[in-house]
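Let's practice the habit of predicting before peeking. Look at the sequence and jot down your guess about where helices and strands might fall. Then scroll down.
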Amino acid sequence: MSASYRSENHARAAIVDAARRMNALGINSGRAGNVSLRWNRGAQDGLLLTPSALAYDAMTADDLVWLPVAVPAAEAPDDEQPLRADGARRPSSEWRLHRDLYASRGDAGAIVHAHAPFATTLACLPRIHARGIPAFHYMIAVAGGDDIRCARYATFGTAELSAAARDALAQRRACLLAQHGLVALGASLEAALELAVELEGLARMYWQALQVGEPALVDAREMERVHARFGRYRPDADAPG
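Done guessing? Here is the structure:
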């Protein structure tokens, strides 16, 4: 999945660009959120990840951190830093979320985590915790199912959050994180960022609809047709693994 980049430096530059574009696109602000790319070194599965607490405008390619996907045997669930990391800076506080998703999702080539305003607003509501964003619009299918799930709340940076996100992303490409934000997976940085933007747009539309009344929902049979059509004209949005 990293074969499209000429070198690791090229891949690092693309991650920095994607991180900056999150803010420019309005799905993130300040130093929140994080971006990663699956990047293998030889036969070792790994990832490149944005660092902790560094403003994106000040970030350079050298600031990114490389981590192996495999979990070291000595690592404790509550370790705040990975036992193996290559870089001068600390990795994002959500390094575990990224690493654990790559370990469980062979289809993930890149991950975008953002504190998108509308997605995060909805992720604070009990109704969304229970039912997610339902199929009020056929484009809900872009996330891989008939709804956009909301992962149960867990403290940021913990193994519990990683587990909650994995559960919410089963047979999905994106989800909300309760009282936190969103996560989007893609085969590439472009795909993951595009999906994050689409999810935030859907969250905004759903929030707007709720201000007027209770939206009508697209029924399950029609959503089946939508998924089938997506598989033909938009194969990148077909059912994930």
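How did you do? The longest strand covers residues 181-186.
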